[in-house]
Amino acid sequence: MDLGIDIGTSEVKVVLIDDAQHIIGQAHSPVAISRPQPLWSEQDPADWWSATVSALAQLRAAHPAEYAATRSIGLSGHMHGATLLDAANQVLRPAILWNDGRSHAQCTELEARAPDSRRITGNIAMPGFTAPKLMWVEQHEPDIFRRTARVLLPKDYVRLLLIGDAVSDMSDSAGTLWLDVGKRTWSDEMLAATHLTRTHMPRLVEGSEASGTLLPAVAQQLGLNPGVIVAGGAGDNAASAAGIGVAAPGTAFLSLGTSGVYFVANAAFSPNPARAVHAFCHAFPGTWHQMTVMLTAASALRWLRTATHADSEAQLVAEADALPVDAPLPQFLPYLSGERTPHNNPYASGVFFGLTHDHGRGHLARAVLEGVAFAFLDGQQALLDGGAQIDAITLVGGGSRSASWAQMLADALGRRLDRRSGAEVGAALGAARLGRLARTGESVASVCTAPPLTDSFEPNPQRTEVLAVRHAQFQRLYAALRGEMSPPH
Description:
The chain is an alpha/beta fold.
């Protein structure tokens, strides 16, 4: 048996799989988020541990024999969070999370201190990353900074409690802005730019390698064998990729959730920071990945439901589907929360353009579906410009349940999209697979396979051509309005 633990932003999820990779059981436990000031987002690291213990206790109660037979643990977690520890490994302050926006000024300062930062890290400095957070702490909480002996990512703090050692993996560490992503090692230059050294960093392993074994007292507490191996694990998106078989170069997934992610595995480090593409290490040796992020995807449809008092998002999709295929539509820029790829503009905003008396709620709904598809197409262009090879795409996320939206995405991207059964298990399953790899030394290809195919959506060349014209207008519209989407004076 292999166990996956995913430290999510809102909950800890655990999954237990057998040697045939059948899911034996799942459990989850919530985690609270604190927002004490505007732009702030924090969590108490103790809550990650208590939620992990709770979720494992549920799993143990439901499947006692199988749980006791666990031989490995893999870890996944939300990326970029800054967990500050003193010399005795005591937490110094609440962890600053990935969605915390307080360190905008520090991002500019970091790139000024380290002119080669984008070449080394493959990424633009953004407030979500870990390094700017530490610069903020140094400037605003200097006593905390002076007492900081080690900085850990969320899942790696849980690992510290599991095995008693500070270890991280390449994929998660690539999101700190302290890793030389191409060389897969800590960058002394980037650490020096934030007045830190390698002594502040955990030991690095690959995601599919062992990081240690359970402490005897912890094993007893959790009802597990002390010889259980704990794998390096991965950041949440890389772990999700392992769970849905996106491991070989050229494989990709498109996540149509609250936000949107387009993730593609690469054989080489392929950065494109100018277009706000993330370039990180994958969870496997000698493999990297590129990732585009759009901040509003399926949540745009949720917003329209509230704004128009529709009964459900499904009703909006049905009204959009009832329109003639060539119905004239307004354009929708889906930047309700700003945008990351390709604009890197936190001040970008949502826009409907071209409204007439002939447009009703169904037209607005289809424009929203189309606008999200166009934003993914922007991301795909940025990936390809960065050297990505995209051969196969799995569609995941809550929005993927809509067949008509899936078809629209296939038409807009000009690529086949596959839906697969079991893909919703995601990062926890990928973590369990990484645990198995660390335990057995099997090949990645034999373990990180794609779930069974449910259906596929082939692009309609005629619709792709029509949507390309609409997409060009979509891009011109943002370019024309960009000057209006700037910080308030």
